[in-house]
Amino acid sequence: MRKFFFIGIKGAGMSALANILKSQGEEVTGSDILEHVFTERKLRENGIEIKPFSKHNFEEPYDTIICGNAFRADNNEEVAYLEKMGIGYQHYYDFLAEMTQGYTSVAVSGTHGKTTTTGLLSEVFSDEGVACLIGDGTGYSAENPDYFLFEACEYKRHFLAYQPTYLIITNIEFDHPDYFADTDDVIDAFTSAAKQTQKTVVAFGDDLNIKEVRLRAIDIPFITFGFGKEHDYIICNYEKTASGITFSLETNNQKLGPFSLPFYGMHMLINSVATLVIANLESLDLESSVERLSKFKGVDRRFNITLSEKYTFIDDYAHHPTEIIATLNAARQKFEGQKIIAVFQPHTFSRTKALEDEFAESLASSDVIYITDIFASAREEESSLIPTALLDKTKGAQHLEITNVEQLLIHENAVIIFMGAGNIQKYMHKVMELVKK
């Protein structure tokens, strides 16, 4: 048994990796902020101790210390102490890159959909022996896994540490404006990732930016899926209803399906087809794969629905305009005819400023719009958290503070959607407490 310590263990990827190592019989401890984060539930369920940040955490030795991507010597006392004392540590992405070697690995990339697609893959491959790292903090491993399924994030080109067997690309858009210069810079990063794939890239071929990646990585095997006749897997007979989606696939002049899944929104169709393509490439039975997909219960903070007598609450991680549109469309599909109330928490000053117009447009399809204070990144320093410019640009938007969430209770028999990548859950939990009273 090896001893591991995680600096920033509540991070989505870090917590999942910690849970994998724990399931493999390793001793795992970590540190983080005291504030509650949704990922810590699984850590505590697995008996993993979470300590406050402190240099005294290293008074006992560890075989391996893994550091979250956000932490450096100038912003974390533990990292500063390790570097001062000459104690070695590894970054999350470097350790994960080493860990995935020796497996048939599937790296899931894309601006949106990574967590859900990895979750779908874990469901389909559940009987095949897998280690799985999902970005909602879920991580587990079979005793002797053949497959390693994991998210590969493009931020700061961290996914270039990996050399997976398969690389899924769900979509490509401009995001992380604090790092990427423009869309072309993002495309360049994904092109580099594609060139490091050992076997095949599986991608949504109707995405214009993915088409550009394919042109730049011309020598790399690509398998595309989409609605166009030029794709290796053609989506046809797509229908959406209040109970989910129905579609068929065509490949090599063979028709597969029809398939029915209890999912909502075009984004879930794309995520599901990407999963089925990987399953087919690995010779899994597609009918059985679809049956497993139909049992998928979702991942944390992705369209999680809570029902009460007078309200429907949805918790969703959407923090980019495209994700907001997808979430609102899915809600319209599932809850046809009901009023949609959007409660959005902007995530980081840089993203909010760079995409203000797009955010305003994406929220416009809601019946009522509330916008909270900005959830700032630890990397940023700004004077005011109130997103004044976004509020001004979003027609009819109201500023919502944690101290006045009771105003949401006027929306009886409506669907109230809480969206954001920060701590938007505390707004929802406070409203739900008021409902119980």
Explain what the structure shows.
The protein is an alpha/beta fold. It folds into 3 domains: 89 residues, Rossmann fold, CATH 3.40.50.720; 195 residues, Mur-like, catalytic domain (UDP-N-acetylmuramoyl-L-alanine:D-glutamate ligase, 3-Layer(aba) Sandwich); 133 residues, Mur ligase, C-terminal domain (Protein-Tyrosine Phosphatase, Chain A), CATH 3.90.190. Helices cover 32% and strands 24% of the residues. The chain has 14 helices and 21 strands. A 10-stranded mixed sheet has the order 8-7-9-6-10-11-12-13-14-15, sandwiched between helices. A 6-stranded mixed sheet has the order 16-17-21-18-19-20, sandwiched between helices. A hairpin with a 2-residue loop joins strand 14 and strand 15. Helix 5 crosses helix 8. The chain starts with a strand and ends with a helix. 46% of the residues are buried.
